[in-house]
Amino acid sequence: MTMAHTQRQITDLNRSTIRRLSLSIGLTVVLVLVEVAASLFANSLALLTDAVHNVTDVMALALTWWAFRAATRPAYSGKTYGYHRAGILVALVNATVLGLISLGIFYEAYRRLFTPPAVRADVLIGVGLVAVVVNLVTALLIRRGSQHDLNLRSTFVHLMGDVLSTLGAVAAGIVIHFTGLNWLDPLISIFIGLLILWNAWGILHESVNILMEATPADVNVEVMVSDIMHVEGVRGVHDLHIWSITRGIRSLSAHILTDDIPISQGTKIQAAICETLYDNYGIDHATLQLECEGCVPANLFCDITDTNHTY
User: What is the homologous superfamily of the domain 3-211 according to CATH?
Assistant: First the structure.
């Protein structure tokens, strides 16, 4: 199989994923509009809260769609990493807004718990069931490829979580229908609001870590250094940096200490290290500077505030 053929396959897969994401976004937007209208008609905070929760689905789907679109745009002199970080910036804003929305939900639910208005349980049940079906369909549309793509995987898990939360709203509607316990409506809203807040916090935490260029949480630096040291020809590692460009795209730079060897031998060492980093840690963009013994101080992490540091 040629590289050109492989590239065509990747391009076709991206186009198929973008089409499925576009369809999922359209279905979810329609669902949000229906739930908002139905919540006003049925006087149901649970439906309105679920509509807000489904807005998070639109955001997650849109960010995933943007990531796939942005990945097709080449880097250039002004943006040498391309546009991958744009999705992280949008996620940071969305997470902040979602946190504020959840606080508003808690306030309204608190008011309604003490004076619960009458709820049209039949509308809550009917629209809730429609929401379950739509969320399940969109989740299944995203499921293809989610086993190998972390971005799609996170969106799929998000949508399946919404299926469960909407089932909770339907269950509340059924109980209200038979018992008249209208306070269950704001109670379910609180649970859905907590789910929104939980998702928002996760997005916020991950976005800040990526923007701060933190080491990915699943990377054990000590084990990584040990793996690099086991590559034949490596005598030491220092000035090590590991960070994420965006979720699923990781980079590394390091100074690798070797014997005083020809460039051709150094190239083989670089290739072996890159293979280890990709296979064990999913790092497919590594910048390795080879140095012979005695060139620089052997500090594992570079202190860039040290003006006397020599490279």
Answer: Cation efflux protein transmembrane domain (1.20.1510.10)
